[in-house]
């Protein structure tokens, strides 16, 4: 596949963008990565995503696909070679989509909020909710993996990509708050999965370095304190 036929618009630090990159790598698809700073709303972003004006955007043969959950599904459909990201069973596929939506709408948004919160009581409440969510996702992992390494079984699947892309920012949050969210005692299987996922050959070159994300976090905090809305 020529690089000109497939493009990814996004920024290196965005977990939603990392999902598209990881899915393409798993399918052995070459692509052109176009670094796009979300705050500037570049012409190319407005061209390919005029509705939401957000990254990531996958461009395949000049046809744009937006929203990371949809992008990963599209990649699985458009390049069917190799293992599918989804189970063959219809109900299990539906469950994968359900939990992906839970991660994006209920759980992961709390990671950013708790990291940036200055209110101790609010932080305490959010940390409890995050921990409860991880315990729930531990149960999902055990059920979906069926004793195998990944949510997808022997191979990285849809939920691995969706949750795995958030792990580096979760690590940053742990460092900032000086806490352990992926607790070896409360979520031993999920903690083991996270270590394996982050160190795997397919993911280690895609996921940003935690140290670089930590530097970015402090820069963002400085902007917020200066009165900028991000």
TrEMBL record:
Chain ranges of the GST C-terminal domain: 89-223
InterPro entries on file: Glutathione-S-Trfase_C-like (IPR010987), Glutathione-S-Trfase_C_sf (IPR036282), Glutathione_S-Trfase (IPR040079), Glutathione_S-Trfase_N (IPR004045), GST_C (IPR004046), GST_C_Tau (IPR045074), Omega/Tau-like (IPR045073), Thioredoxin-like_sf (IPR036249)
Keywords: Detoxification, Transferase
Keyword Phosphoprotein tagged: no
EC class name: transferase
EC number: 2.5.1.18
GO CC term (a single one): cytoplasm
Signal peptide annotation: none
Molecular functions (GO terms): glutathione transferase activity
Keyword Cell division carried by entry: no
Gene Ontology terms describing biological process: glutathione metabolic process; toxin catabolic process
Residues annotated as domain GST N-terminal: 4-83
Reactions catalysed according to its record: RX + glutathione = an S-substituted glutathione + a halide anion + H(+)
PANTHER family linked to this entry: GLUTATHIONE S-TRANSFERASE U17, GLUTATHIONE S-TRANSFERASE, GST, SUPERFAMILY, GST DOMAIN CONTAINING
Family in the record: Belongs to the GST superfamily. Tau family.
Protein name in the entry: glutathione transferase
């Amino acid at each position: 596949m020529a690089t000109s036929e497939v493009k990814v618009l996004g920024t290196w630090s965005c977990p939603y963008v990392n999902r598209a990159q990881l899915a393409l790598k798993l399918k052995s698809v070459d692509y052109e990565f176009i670094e796009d700073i979300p705050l500037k709303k570049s012409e190319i972003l407005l061209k390919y995503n005029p509705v939401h004006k957000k990254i990531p955007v996958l461009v395949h043969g000049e046809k744009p696909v937006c929203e990371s959950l949809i992008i990963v599904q599209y990649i699985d459909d458009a390049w069917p070679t190799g293992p599918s990201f989804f189970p063959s069973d219809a109900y299990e596929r539906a469950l994968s989509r359900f939990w992906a939506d839970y991660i994006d709408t209920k759980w992961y948004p709390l990671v950013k909020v708790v990291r940036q919160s200055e209110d101790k009581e609010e932080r305490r409440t959010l940390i409890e909710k995050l921990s409860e969510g991880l315990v729930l996702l531990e149960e999902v992992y055990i059920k979906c993996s069926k004793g195998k390494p990944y949510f997808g079984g022997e191979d990285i699947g849809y939920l691995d990509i969706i949750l795995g892309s958030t792990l580096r920012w979760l690590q940053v949050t742990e460092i900032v708050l000086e806490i352990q969210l992926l607790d070896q005692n409360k979520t031993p299987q999920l903690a083991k999965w996270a270590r394996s996922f982050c160190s795997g050959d397919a993911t280690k070159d895609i996921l940003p370095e935690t140290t670089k994300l930590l530097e970015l976090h402090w820069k963002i905090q400085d902007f917020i304190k200066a009165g900028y809305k991000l």
